[in-house]
UniProtKB/TrEMBL annotation:
This is Lipopolysaccharide biosynthesis protein. It is found in: Cell membrane. Keywords: Cell membrane, Membrane, Transmembrane, Transmembrane helix. PANTHER family: LIPOPOLYSACCHARIDE BIOSYNTHESIS PROTEIN WZXC, PST FAMILY PREDICTED COLANIC ACID TRANSPORTER. It comes from Arthrobacter crusticola.
Length: 517
């Protein structure tokens, strides 16, 4: 699962437009060299983009975490759960609001015809879904027997059109690797969403505060992306050609379907908890996932926005693509597994300190959802390979199988409350992470054993963090921030020593990537 995405939750991108020259554009010599250099070039190019994205990601996440902490102390668990339910229902619609043109424009050859066709498709589909959500809001509220959900759904429906209209400029900026420009738009979105949501929450607007903030942030992001797009706006959608429409839909529709299925898989637990356990339980469950989402899962999404355009450019050179993918898997698993395990270890200390004592029921779910994030680190990125090689249908097939198996498993697990649901998600994620990497190895025509070797540093460091973290947390150092800081420092120190002493080559390569050598 993943926590419902407000406009605060979307990945940020790079730094500022002044730094554009550091990230290769579509026409720059650096971008042209991507098709000629060694396999390591892909990893280095991805790392540069990710480093730029990380700057804005850090700024955006800081705003998000402050907002979440404050809202957790202003809103009750039930109010938090109601907003989560409305957000997850809108997230389902948002996955298909642009009919996949966001992905199609990155994959297709650049042309004004494709851009105009994509904008027409996004406007029609996004507008239709917005109207449909407004009309369906009373029915949705009746199904969940929560009248308060009706107005939340109607307000959040506006964000569907905003997201759809942002899809084209966002895709064009990503395709041309203009991450600094995306940074500006992403930071504007975070600031608008956070400030408005907090202002309304302090004014006692309750659950509505986060809904209104989300809509405002989405609109601000769409406007910013259009204003930052170089080369003009392809507004002449009446000139869209049938061939371009077909090309966008041929790639975009399966990609959108895959995204919808992924969202159903990752968020169906919210629907099941809302139906079987109620809004208050959903509030605790949602908050439990906020930290692994912000600190771990959004990093995966951030990397995806960088590497998918690079994978698409390198799809004609499988050797270079394989080398780049293995390096991304190695780095991603190292971060995801160690961070997930570490978060699980300190969960019992972190929740009271950050969110307050009334959120105590979120501790146990946080432990398992942190491990879920760690497990997902082993499989995240495979779908980017499927799409880059022009086979988004693979994701659809895998997602369908997973959804069919997951729903009855979660319904059964709900008898043990939200902790049971979290355990079921973690177990299923492990099975499918391994399966998706096996499929990725086949489409890349390489041995699966190479992927296993790539994740060994992450697994070893994760195990060490669990042993050291549990040992240090058991020391009689008192409660509160000082003890928490000692545990975190011990975990970070352990990872550094392992990299420096055992995985020396990985340590040196990470240093080179950070310093862009």
């Amino acid at each position: 699962m993943s926590a419902p995405m407000t406009s605060l939750d979307r990945p940020t991108s790079a730094a500022t437009t002044a730094c554009q020259g550091i990230v290769p554009t579509a026409s720059s010599p650096e971008a042209a060299s991507l098709s000629q250099d060694s396999p390591g070039t892909l990893a280095r190019a991805g790392a540069k983009g990710a480093m730029w994205q990380a700057l804005a990601h850090s700024i955006g996440r800081a705003i998000v975490l402050v907002t979440i902490v404050v809202l957790a102390r202003l809103l009750s668990p039930e109010e938090y759960g109601l907003v989560a339910l409305a957000l997850v229902l809108m997230a389902y619609a948002e996955m298909i609001a642009d009919a996949g043109v966001n992905q199609a424009l990155v994959y297709l050859k650049p042309s004004p015809e494709n851009s105009r066709a994509a904008l027409l498709i996004a406007a029609v589909v996004g507008g239709s879904l917005t109207v449909g959500a407004v009309v369906a809001a009373p029915v949705i509220a009746a199904v969940f027997d929560r009248p308060e959900v009706e107005v939340l759904v109607q307000v959040l429906a506006i964000s569907l059109l905003g997201s759809a209209l942002a899809a084209v400029p966002e895709a064009l900026l990503r395709r041309d690797l203009l991450f600094p420009r995306l940074t500006v738009a992403a930071i504007i979105r975070s600031v608008v969403t956070g400030s408005l949501a907090l202002g309304l929450a302090f004014a006692d607007y309750g659950a509505l505060s986060l809904a209104v903030g989300t809509v405002a942030g989405t609109i601000a992001y769409a406007v910013s992306c259009w204003l930052l797009l170089p080369g003009g706006v392809p507004w002449k959608i009446w000139r869209a050609r049938r061939a371009a429409l077909r090309a966008n839909l041929a790639f975009g529709a399966p990609a959108a379907g895959s995204n919808l299925l992924v969202r159903l898989i990752f968020d169906v637990d919210y629907v099941i908890i809302a139906l079987l356990l109620g809004a208050q339980a959903l509030g605790h469950y949602t908050l439990a996932f906020r930290l692994p989402e912000q600190l771990i899962m959004n990093v995966f999404y951030l990397l995806s926005t960088v590497v998918f355009p690079l994978y698409s450019r390198a799809r004609s050179d499988l050797e270079r693509l394989r080398g780049g993918y293995l390096k991304i898997v190695q780095i991603q698993s190292l971060y995801g597994v160690t961070a997930g395990v570490g978060l699980a270890v300190v969960a019992h200390m972190l929740v009271p300190v950050v969110f307050g004592d009334r959120w105590g029921q979120a501790v146990l779910p946080l432990v398992f959802l942190s491990m879920y994030a760690a497990v997902r680190a082993l499989g995240a990125g495979a779908t980017d390979i499927y799409k880059a090689l022009g086979r988004p249908g693979l994701s659809v097939g895998i997602s369908l199988v997973r959804l069919v198996l997951l729903v009855p498993l979660l319904i059964y697990a709900a008898r043990w409350g939200i902790a049971g649901v979290a355990v079921a998600q973690c177990a299923s994620a492990l099975v499918f992470a391994l399966g998706m990497q096996v499929v990725a190895a086949r489409v890349l025509r390489m041995r699966a054993m190479l992927l296993l070797r790539a994740v060994i540093p992450g697994l070893v460091c994760g195990l060490a963090v669990s042993v050291v973290g549990i040992s240090v947390s058991a020391l009689p150092l008192g409660d509160g921030i000082p003890h928490l800081a000692v545990v975190i420092a011990a975990g970070l120190g352990t990872v550094y020593l392992l990299l420096r002493m055992i995985f020396t080559s990985l340590h040196d390569e990470l240093v080179r990537l950070v310093l862009r050598r």
